[in-house]
Amino acid sequence: MPLLREGRLRLLAVANPSRSPVVPEAPTAAEAGFPALEMEGAHGLFGWRGMPEEARAELARQAAEALAEPAAAERLRAAGMEPRAATTPAAFAAELAKTRAHWAALARDFGAKPPD
Known about the structure:
Layout: H1 2-5, H2 53-67, H3 70-78, H4 89-109
């Protein structure tokens, strides 16, 4: 984002399914003529395998609470990210599984053999 703000970088499009609120003037890849190019990053918190559900739910609650703080959300936006909390740990896990399946299929299309 700093390079973009300084005019040293030109943003052609965002790969998100919708325009970014951080750079609303940038078209989506679909709008720029590349409808198959869609990728949305996901950051999250992870615990250990077998983590108690109560601890997982508490971590999710605290993360959502932190993202609701205007100062925290603004710092993320300044870095080019749009803060959003998954509704539940299960929803985040489903989002990650969908992303993994998408990239694994694409890798296979190009001849790579990702692990199952």
